[in-house]
Design brief:
Transcriptional repressor of xylose-utilizing enzymes. Residues 2-42 form the HTH iclR-type domain. Pfam families: HTH_IclR (PF09339), ROK (PF00480). By secondary structure, the chain is α/β, with parallel strands linked by helices. Helices cover 35% and strands 20% of the residues. Helix 6 (175-185) packs across helix 13. It is globular, with a radius of gyration of 23 Å. The two termini are 41 Å apart.
């Protein structure tokens, strides 16, 4: 409670902490002394006097520990390291085609995590945990990736593979959910109560925030918005159905529209090339982005009618489409959504860009560390200053981590 207060409110005096939390002054002072001893908080000078001695101010020591946020994408790997304020202190993204061998891909991710840990000076509490965003259905309690159609993976124990390498808690979550969490944790929409986040890239995932909490559904699998049907006779989707939303708004859909709209052109074309062409004013690129925006607007109008959010955030690589997509989305929503529902909704592009899922994955670990109410406990629970006397905080071994006894995850 005290740590989270300092995270949210910044420097304050012992008397302010006791007053806001309702703790007795002696209790609040004792907790702060314990936190100071563990380097979780630090004194930063004095505040203004109210008639007596100037009070000493304490604040969260953001560099006391670190967390890893990772995004295991279809054609990239991204790892960020966050401090206790959720600020990125290290980042690396690797563009590569996804491997058909899940063990090899998780092994590459593990090496990138090791690089992050080795590149940042050790923190007093070390690495507190690893959060991983993945593009598919996840078994929340174990971190098993049940089905990822755009990766071609099924029943992959991502969480267990990483736990064999790192002696810290590991959480695995759908990338739409982690992207939504990033927006309310570290983005411009911090504190939003009802939010609908769309991660649009190779596929389309969604994260739903209701009353400030991620909505996961009965079995933790809510948010597969890209596999809602737009056209029953439409293109074949990687999930096996036809006419899913993501077949109309993905990067592949965008490049297909450009190729069909041009008389001549390259047989291979990237979404990034389309974005750059649109910025130069290319009419075929602008028209293709607008068409994608129209279909995305149809999907968002359906989401407004279903969830009634305060804000819709468009994230992922396709958010690079900028005004060409966003204007089309807003126009279609204006046409299709009921006025009483759409009138209060903001539709915006993510301020965190393509980093949102990775940042949100790290924020999952921070949520557990700060014991924020309403979050689900990981399989390996955290320990904090109010545990048994003398019990160490998880992570006090610094940046060291345990390697698997096997030669690597790829052989398993």
């Amino acid at each position: 409670m005290v740590l989270n207060l300092l995270r949210l409110r910044g420097p304050m005096s012992r008397a302010d902490i006791a007053r806001i939390t309702g703790l007795h002054k002696a209790t609040a002072s004792g907790l702060l002394e314990a936190l100071l001893a563990r380097q979780l908080v630090k004194e930063i000078g004095t505040g203004p006097s109210t008639g007596g001695r100037r009070p000493k101010l304490v604040t969260l020591n953001a560099s006391a520990g670190t967390v890893i946020g990772a995004d295991l994408g279809v054609d990239y790997l991204l790892v960020v390291m966050l401090n206790l304020h959720g600020q990125v202190v290290w980042r690396k993204r690797i563009l590569e085609p996804g491997s058909a061998n899940p063990g090899e891909e998780v092994e590459r991710l593990a090496h990138l995590i090791e690089e992050a840990v080795a590149s940042v000076p050790p923190a007093p509490l070390g690495l507190l945990g690893i959060g991983v965003a993945v593009p598919g259905l996840v078994e929340d309690e174990t971190g098993r990736l049940l089905f990822a159609p755009n990766l071609g993976w099924q029943d992959v124990p991502v969480g267990d593979l990483l736990r064999r390498r790192f002696d810290v808690p590991v959480r695995v979550e759908n990338d739409g959910n982690t992207g939504a969490l990033a927006e309310v944790w570290a983005g411009a929409l911090e504190g939003a109560g009802h939010l609908f986040f769309l991660n649009v890239g190779v596929g389309v995932g969604a994260g739903i925030i209701i009353d400030g909490e991620i909505y996961r559904g009965a079995r933790g699998m809510a948010g597969e918005f890209g596999h809602t049907t737009v056209d029953p006779a439409g293109p074949l989707c990687n999930c096996g159905n036809r006419g899913c939303l993501e077949t109309f708004v993905s990067q592949r859909a965008l490049t297909g529209l450009v190729r069909r709209g041009a008389d001549t052109g390259p047989t291979t074309l990237s979404a990034e090339a389309v974005f750059q062409a649109a910025e130069r004013g290319d009419p075929a690129a602008i028209a293709a982005l607008a068409r994608v925006g129209e279909y995305l607007g149809i999907g968002i109008a359906n989401a407004l009618h279903t969830f009634d959010p305060d804000v819709v955030v468009i994230g992922g690589p396709m958010a690079r489409g900028g005004p060409s997509i966003l204007n089309a989305v807003r126009r279609v929503v204006e046409q299709r959504a009921m006025p009483s529902i759409r009138s209060h909704v903001r539709i915006v592009v993510s301020t965190l860009g393509e980093d949102a899922p990775a940042i949100g994955a790290g924020a999952m670990i921070l949520q557990e560390f700060f014991r924020i109410p309403g979050t689900r406990a990981p399989a390996r629970p955290f320990r904090s200053y109010d545990d048994a006397a003398g019990a160490p905080l998880l992570g006090t071994r610094g940046s060291r981590h345990r390697r698997s006894r096997s030669s690597g995850t790829g052989s398993r």
